[in-house]
Amino acid sequence: xxxxxxxxxxxxxxxxxxxxxxxxxxxxxxxxxxxxxxxxxxxxxxxxxxxxxxxxxxxxxxxxxxxxxxxxxxxxxxxxxxxxxxxxxxxxxxxxxxxxxxxxxxxxxxxxxxxxxxxxxxxxxxxxxxxxxxxxxxxxxxxxxxxxxxxxxxxxxxxxxxxxxxxxxxxxxxxxxxxxxxxxxxxxxxxxxxxxxxxxxxxxxxxxxxxxxxxxxxxxxxxxxxxxxxxxxxxxxxxxxxxxxx
Length: 246
Description:
Blueprint: E1 3-5, E2 16-17, H1 20-29, E3 37-41, E4 46-54, E5 57-66, E6 76-81, H2 85-98, E7 102-107, H3 117-137, E8 145-146, E9 150-151, E10 164-168, H4 172-175, H5 179-185, E11 192-196, H6 204-213, E12 216-218, H7 228-235
Parallel strand pairs: 1-3, 6-7, 6-11, 7-8, 7-9, 10-11, 10-12
Antiparallel strand pairs: 2-5, 3-4, 4-5
């Protein structure tokens, strides 16, 4: 069943006019008919709604609330170094599906992708559209926010004193801890921040700021032949840890 996010507050038995994008998707992509059922979400509640077509517009009539089972007990933030093209689009999709609350792109000295200010607004709009579509597809009850890219050094502004901060590091066996042991030690953190670089070697930026960030290294990455596609895909596996916090 297709889900759509709406900006209006949902009130049972009060029709909501779908926006142009949803109208096109309902009418021309899915080719839905009168009284077909969809899911509506205003980020506070979920409802079933029946479709009504009138005067070239589509209306949704909410008639029954749905219990929200998609929220995790602990919010998760993913801070990810920028990677090229469609790999970044896929990362946004999968992060939304795995339960991330927000995504913070960052740049560093090892990032191949350069953040150009003149294109940032257009990219940010596109990224959040991808996130919205992914959240609708996996039927989440809240949108995932993709923030504007920041320098690696500014990640310190996103830390919280009682948050669990995890960093993906391929040599963590030498100085870090395994994910399972960390989750056993921190059963109910207020927030989880996950940091992943797009390259397999941590640079001086990280080592110089580690005492400030108080991040814990994880040894779940095992890469013999470096490939950035394998790196971030494997790193996303850690997001499944949100199941522990239910």
